[in-house]
Amino acid sequence: MRKTVSIMLVAVFALALVSAMVPLFPIVSAATPPTGWSKTYGGAGDDKGWGDLYQTSDGGYAISGDTASFGAGGADYWLVKVDAAGNMLWNKTYGGNGTESENAMVQTSDGGYAMLGVTGSFGAGGNDFWLVKTDAAGNMQWNKTYGGTGSDIGVSVFQTNDGGYAVSGLTSSFGAGSMDVWLVKTDSVGNMQWNKTYGGTGADYGFSVVQTSDGGYAISGPTTSFGAGGQDVWLVKTDAAGNMQWNKTYGGTGMEWMDQMIRTADGGYAISGYTTSFGAGGQDVWLVKTDAAGNMQWNKTYGGTGSDDGFHLVQTGEGGYAIIGSTVSFGAGGTDVWLVKTDAAGNMQWNKTYGGANTDLGYSVVQTSDGGYAIAGYTNSFGAGGNDFYVVKTDASGLLPYKAPPAASAFTSVSVLPGWTWTFFVHSNGGVGAHTYQWYDTSGPLAGQTSMVLPVAKNAPGTYTFYCKVTDSEGTSANSNNVTLTVMG
Q1: If you write DSSP's letter for every residue of 292-356 in order, what string do you get?
Q2: Is the pTM for the entire model greater than 0.90?
Q3: For the chain, N or C: smaller number of CB within 10 Å?
Q4: Which pLDDT score, from 0 to 100, does residue 426 have?
């Protein structure tokens, strides 16, 4: 349930000589609940938390993505660190004069972070893989680019057993087709040790990479080169040197898309994305479970009659799965964040939506130390700009704390003589963080009237109506009751 603001509007009678009064009522903001909250982070531009989210050792969170509000270029990598209640502790941008887009992050063994994406500022081609390594405070330690003269887009990063990194994505600079899977192995400071491409004559993408128990790698993504349909999910298994050992495709006659692959506790793999071949709607969330050899054990779809997608998943403590993504079938707005919880066999146990009237997307989910969930993505419904980072912390059932809906009461309407000055106060509580104010009359917002008090002086006889809109730091708003002033003739 979204945070709420409650308001009491007070009308105060004053003589014409009184032009302003000191507010009598303090602002009271509710403390952040310990088990659930939601926060936005951003500026006036587009800020998208579509990288990754990690719970840090201090109980807080690190969230990555890119920003057009801050930094050096058109868009830069953005790393935001918050405490356990979602309050920002620090943030850092990384980039040049061009455009950078961050797609993945891993927390490293030394407590720092490694971020991967694409850069238009540095490297050999139009777009190159860009790997940025920071310390625990977000200070850049080193960065490396990988690529050729074509377009090379880094999508997934994994810290390997030797302290180096495996990064995967897609390349048009190398390989057999228009776009091939590209796997790059580096040492601990980002120097390339080897690289391999995988693909056919079509377009093949490496959206997710993990290291396997035998020291090799598993890479997954969509393929148009192989499979049963126009586009299928592709899983490639390699040895420690990147040589392909086997590959499998999953899909039907329609289109399948893969967003995330993880290693499961039994040594197999779980893959999330969407399907148009199976399910209830035009596009449904698709979860595929395989054994260690890539043989499908089961698959499940989740969705309604609209378009639904599963961007990210984790295996939960009891062996089930939590999938985060987006839904047009359910929720409050055009597109909402959608969290689906399943048992170990993929049977849905519950699902929750989060968002407002506009577009809200969830790109990363973790199960938190208290058994709940933390979700990161971006929102167009709340926040300061066009799109803002959006982080939701829930309890173990996906719930946010309930708060009573806005409450408002206005004191008795008054009648005054022409020319007398009146000062109104707004008293607000509830919601999250600091409140902002905007006063209105029947014609719309009153210019410059953005404080707790509203001084009014009217000469013309008649009845005048006012109210105040109060908004908390998450963008949740409530309107006060009307107060009416009658100027006697």
Answers
A1: TT--EEEEEEE--SSBEEEEEEEE-TTS-EEEEEEESSSSSSSBEEEEEEE-TT--EEEEEEE--
A2: no
A3: C
A4: 85
